[in-house]
Amino acid sequence: MVKVNWELQGCCDRDQKIFIAAVGVSTVVILLLWRTFLLTPFKLITVFLHETSHALACKLTCGDVEGMQVHPNEGGVTQTRGGIYWIILPAGYLGSSFWGMWFLRWLCIGFIVFLAVVWVIQEFTKFHSLKYVILFIGVMNSLFSVYDIYDDLISRRVHSSDAEKFAEICPCPCNGCAWGVIWGFISFIFLCASIYLGLVILS
After folding, report:
1. Where exactly are the structural domains of the chain?
2. Which residues, 6 or more positions from 98, have their beta carbon under 8 angstroms from its beta carbon?
3. Ranges of H-type helices in 33-129
4. Where are the alpha helices (H) located in the chain, listed in sequence order?
5. Which residues of the chain have pLDDT under 70?
6. From the CB of residue 97, how many other CB atoms can be counted at a distance below 10 Å?
7. Element (DSSP H or E) covering residue 67
């Protein structure tokens, strides 16, 4: 039976250092390129997963999903009927994104081609690039969730945000901004937990 090194004894070996460095580099690159078109596909993937999380939460709480849209301006909306809103509303921030529907078909095709190229490199060279692309997308999802909460509730104060809607139905004294901070903190914990589990797996 394989013993799991939960205590991370002997950390960090070469693979673990590369993993930590990859997370750090991904974070820096994402922050530097945040407002450029280069990250648009990744942002829209995150938006899709965000809306998908709403839809899944709705279905899991016996509701009906009437529609889901992802907009090229990195916004999105999911129309639901029924279900438990206490679960549906926070599910979006704790989920993430997609990069387009039919009107973004060329962007979709470009992203698929990009992934195909990565796969070819993975299969026919010694450079295992696929795991770094997946890691980059994972970091992107975590950071986007935190940024989206900040953008909606602190910098722009969007009153139609998930957190504002949740605050309206929640009897506790927390406002939308407070719920956003709570959900953002949970998203950050998810990121930290993912890094920890990655180090455990590599140990």
Report:
1. 14-202
2. 44, 45, 46, 47, 48, 49, 51, 52, 70, 76
3. 40-60, 85-93, 105-124
4. 14-32, 40-60, 85-93, 105-124, 130-150, 162-169, 176-202
5. 1-2, 93-112, 114-115, 118, 122, 127-130, 145, 148-149, 151-160
6. 26
7. strand 64-70
Taking each helix axis from N to C terminus, what angle separates 130-150 and 176-202, rounded to the nearest 10 degrees?
A: 160
Using CA atoms, how far apart are residues 166 and 160, in angstroms rounded to an integer? 10
Q: What residues contact residue 125 under an 8 Å CB cut-off, 6+ apart?
A: none
For residues 53 and 94, the answer to whether their CB atoms sit within 8 Å is yes
Rg of the Cα trace of the chain?
Answer: 19
Distance CA 40, CA 110 (A): 12
Both tokens of residue 17?
A: 């250092």
Contact indicator for 93, 162 with CB cutoff of 8 Å = yes
